[in-house]
Amino acid sequence: MKLTTPLRVIGALAALALPLTACTAAGSQDDAAWPDSNLEIFIGFGPGGTPDLIGRGIGDQLQSEHSINVTAINRTGGASTIAMNEALSAEADGTTLALATSNGLLWQPLVEDGLEYDQTEGYEALAKVAESPFSLMVAADGDFASMEDFIEEADSGAELSIAVTGEGAQTDLTVQLLNEQNDWNLRSVPYTDGAGEGILAVMRGEVDAQVSTTAGVQGQINSGDVNILAVLAEEPEPENPDTRTIGEFGLEVPMGTSFYIVSPDGLDESLREEMIAAMNELVTSEEWADTLESLGLPQSTLDHEATQEEIASLIEEYAVLEP
């Protein structure tokens, strides 16, 4: 992938004009140029968490709209780089996609050697499909009844253990930022199978809290086993609208995570334009908006051109962090 250049921008804008489908008088859809064959979509996290739900949701919509089979493949580990490496080493023929997080796509190349891609090369970012803030969560019967309790303990210099979704994962970076911003002593404890494994450790009292997205643990929140102390974002979450944001406690907002659909770099230009047009239409569709709402996620998608701009901005943001 090349970040925004005049040629790429022109190609992306031209792709927006390409129709995804054509409707007949009876209301049925003709097959689009892409996808016209079965697809695989790689997901770098275990089943049931937010990334898995997003990736499978994309696959379900592509499958429904284009009458193809989409196979979701979970490859855990390496802060999602195992899945990314496998997907991006595939042939660039439009049959292999990956759900990339901003961490796996843009931070991991700074801290891990031997990847099939780096921050700007080796992939084609087709569109941003979702965004999810993180929340700070604790066991309902644990030591912290409120965010004020947690802040008081953290301000005292006590070491607090925080479950994260992998060493060097975006949740781990968020813990680092909280430490830097507030002179806290939070210690990340990585759980490579994602938020579900970590929240069980929280409920067992093995760690003090968890930083993660909430979609994968919404069941435990709804059942009353887990409490959200604060949403680490500027706006409340749709699924948990009464939870206060971290800014309400006088703290800075650390990072959340963006999700992108990516393919191997080196696509034929006409295929590339077809894939961009199809994904642009998908992420702006009512169907995808309904999916995000059902997951409790904000309506924060971007078309191909805006995705390139966000990626460029995030690369600058990551440059200030220590690998």
UniProtKB/TrEMBL annotation:
Organism in which the protein naturally occurs: Enteractinococcus helveticum
Highest taxon of source: Bacteria
Residues annotated as signal peptide: 1-24
Record's keyword terms, sorted: Signal
SUPFAM superfamilies given in the database record: Periplasmic binding protein-like II
InterPro entries cross-referenced by the UniProt entry: BUG (IPR005064), Bug_dom1 (IPR042100)
Family in the record: Belongs to the UPF0065 (bug) family.
PANTHER family referenced in this protein's UniProt entry, alphabetically: BLR1237 PROTEIN (PTHR42928:SF5), TRICARBOXYLATE-BINDING PROTEIN (PTHR42928)
Descriptive protein name: Tripartite tricarboxylate transporter substrate binding protein
Keyword Hydrolase part of the UniProt annotation: no
The organism's taxonomic lineage, starting at the top: Bacteria, Bacillati, Actinomycetota, Actinomycetes, Micrococcales
